[in-house]
Amino acid sequence: KSFKDISLIKLLYISFVRSKLEYCAIVWCPHYKNMKHEIESVQRRLLKYLAFKCDGVYPPQGYENALLNARFGLLSLEVRRLVLGLTFLYNIVSNKVDCIELMSLITFSVPLHATRNVVTFYCKSARTNLMLKSPMFHMCSTFNKISRLGDINFHTLRELKQLLIV
Fold first, then answer.
1. Which residues pair with 6 in a beta bridge?
2. Cross-strand bridge partners of residue 121
3. Which of 26, 46, 119, 130 is packed most tightly, with the most Cβ within 10 A?
4. Sequence-ordered alpha helix ranges (H) in the chain
C-alpha cells in the first residue's frame, strides 16, 4: 500500500535519503553544475511526488524548484551544504570544535586602515582548482559573502544561518 501522510513521507526522506546525500558535505561538496543538478534532482523527484500526493497531478514541466521547496518547507540541498559549512566554521572559531590544526588553517583579515571592504577571513587567490575547492577556502569565502551583514564573533549561529538562507 502507498503512504497517504505527506509529513511521514517527508520524514522518511529526511531520515533515510537526505542524510545520505549530506554525509560528509563539508569535505565533499560538489562544485560542478552537473553534479549539483544530479544531487538536487533526487530532492526534486520527492517534491514532485509530494505535489502529486497533495494535488492529484504532477507540477508542470519547468515548475520552479524554489517554489516546491518553499511549499513543503525544505531548503535546497545546495543551501543546506552552505549552512553546514557555516555551522562548522562557526564551531571552529567559537572553540566548540577543539582542533588546533583546523584553527591554524583559518586566516583572519586584519585591515591596515579603515576600509569599506569588510571581510572576516583572508582568502588568498586560488591558483589551482584544488585550492579553490578545498573545504576551508570554500567555508571562509562563503562566510565572507555575508560578512557585511553579520559578525561571526557577535551574532549567534541561528542569526548567521538566517543571513545565509535569505
1. none
2. 108
3. 46
4. 6-12, 19-21, 33-55, 65-72, 77-93, 100-104, 129-132, 135-146, 157-165
Q: Which of 50, 74, 98 marks a domain boundary? A: 74
Question: CA 65, 14, 80, 57: dihedral to nearest 10 degrees?
Answer: 0
Judgement on whether residues 154 and 101 belong to the same structural domain of the protein? yes
CA dist., res. 9 & res. 84, Å (int): 23
- The predicted structure's pLDDT at residue 119: 87
* pLDDT at res. 1: 56
**Residue 122 and residue 52 share a domain:** no
Number of domains composing the chain: 2
Residues 158 and 86 reside in one and the same domain: yes
Q: What is the pLDDT of residues 134-158, one digit of tens each?
A: 999 999 999 999 988 989 989 999 9
Grid coordinates given for 24:
560528509
Q: Cell numbers at residue 17, please?
A: 535519503
Query: pTM value?
Result: 0.89
Question: 65 and 14 in one domain?
Answer: yes
Picking from 144, 131, 155, 14, the residue whose alpha carbon sits closest to that of residue 82 is: 144
pLDDT > 90? residue 111: no
